[in-house]
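Researcher: Hi, I'm a grad student and pretty new to this. My advisor asked me to get structures for two proteins we've been looking at. I'm not sure of the right format, so I'll just paste the first sequence and hope you can take it from there.
Model: That works fine. Here's the first sequence with its structure tokens right after it:
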Amino acid sequence: MENDNLNENSRNNQTLGKKPSYESRHMYEETVKNKIDAEYEEKRGRRAFGYVWNVIWSLVFIIFFNFFSRYIAYFQFEKIDGVLQWNVYPIITAGFSKLIPLITAGLVVILIGNIVLLIFDRYVLSRIIEILSSIFAIAVLANVILVFPFDFNVIPYDQLSEMLPLILKILLGLIIFILIILIIANFVKIVIKIAKR
């Protein structure tokens, strides 16, 4: 009798400690996948707003950098012959014109990418477009640091005009570093998403 009880207990323990079957694991993975997809779909409206916002700002910057870049300047308000007027002192140099095609190309990639995402909103596609946009942004920012088409000597504050080039280079370098991390993170997300399929 005692042997029967021991055998029964050992069978129960084996059943409890047994690894889940392939079917139950598969069902669990499908449930997790469906939950992730459902959560992604729920935020569709918010993402659509973000895509539209990116399209608008890309257009604004394309127009600004191609036609109004002279307004990247130091503005001074002063009184001349009793008349108040703005004096505009551009801080960009001739080297900036060499960067405009690259800046425009980067903005066009962002613009087209967000239009595509408005039509085909897919998780992996959005990560790929983010990677491409980040690569173009890094190319633009790296060239801005190399060419550095700014002349802050027009600013009548010596300490500020001396510090601004260094501050701007550090800021651009920090943005590049963040974009590199973003590229790596998006690449990992793509690999994980594909691996789960």
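Researcher: Oh nice, that was easy. Here's the second one.
Model: And its structure:
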Amino acid sequence: MADKNLNRRDFIRLSGMSCASSLILPSFIKEEFAKKSPIGATFILWGYGPDSLEPALKDMSALGFHGFETFGQVIEEWETKRGGFKPVVEKYGVPIISAFCNTNVLDPAKGKEDLEKLARWCKLTKDNGGKVIEYCPSGTTNNRKGYDYKEHKTNLIEGMNNAAKVATDHGLVCALHPHTGTPVETEEEVYFVMENLDTRYMKFGPDVGQLVKGGADAVKIVKDFMPLIEHVHLKDYAGGDNGYLGYSPLGQGKVDLVKILKMLEDRRGKMAGMIMFELDAGRKGQMPLPEFEAAKISHDYLKNLGYKFKA
């Protein structure tokens, strides 16, 4: 799977295998997850811009997800140009839990402007009922050519601390989201920043699929920083050119999701955010399944583990 392009037939076949395997899980595993964490979804499977909000909410509502995450700029676009963010959210009954936001942490000049933008997004997130800023530092190119985090230690840590304080000042929890192609991608970088940040303000919001794609041990990182975890992107990673940037519906990749979920059950009651299913959208026309079908595979995987969704 990791080395081949997958078409619609391949995905349907694999999803059937995934569901079949989950149906024969030992009963004690299913019981362990029964009536546990509410599960949310991020909206990037449906796209990255404001036009994707309503289609995403429609499918999330139909599948019974308990909350969702979008981008700060999407909230702002709907508030300022499309008649308001809250009406479309209330229409589908899936509350916002978190907003994905970033600031430049390597260029102080750009960082100041980004903090002002972040403050706007924080206010809008809070006003619409959100609780968490899923924060991703920016400033590197996608290929990170020539990047060495040690050379940027001061700006890197100071920039992220400043962003976390902005979110905290707005009554939100700020959770760091390591991401491929950003200043915090590798396992070494994750440990470095988490051990140097002011964790009174910056908490942790891992994306387990991103961690694996970046070469990290996601299980170890989740375990080591469990007391700081406030939000989670639950994502699987298969690798290869599969139409989803190498990611996959849950249960079809190499991330040890069951072990991670079992660890998170001890933390979930203390989290400000939520465990959220995520699958990155590839280019339009290249994704092997319609968004609803792709999301349903992950929904069914979690349901077969014992997680409950809205009727």
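Researcher: Is there anything I should tell my advisor about the second?
Model: You could mention this: The longest strand covers residues 96-104.
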